[in-house]
Amino acid sequence: MSIKRYGVEGGVGTGGQKLPFARAVEAGGWLRVSGQTPMTDGEVVEGGIIEQTRLAFDNCLAIMQEAGYGVEDVVHVTAVLTDARYFSSFNKVFAEIFGANPPARICSVQDLVVDCKVEVDVSCYRADRA
Prior knowledge:
This is Enamine deaminase RidA, house cleaning of reactive enamine intermediates, YjgF/YER057c/UK114 family. By secondary structure, this protein is of the alpha+beta class.
């Protein structure tokens, strides 16, 4: 089994800092996407929890697409919210993205090292790539 890393050439975080981790790693049919925040070009995009959740998931989906995975391949999501009051709005966006075939999930409330409202990561699986 080989391991393929996506984005090790240097993702960009807040303030233009080079990130010391891969955007995603693929091995044995699994794709693990690193936590994504509502950032564009290394800067957090302002907005409410709905806009920030959509952008965080859009960032995950873009990495998944680059690796050849789709939303139907997502088996687990980890979500971190900075305020428990965001839970209902987060769930609305989550349901829009995953529809009738939602993945397993954990959602917690914690402080984030980036000044935003949400961070998400996804785990995907494709048997044809195992």
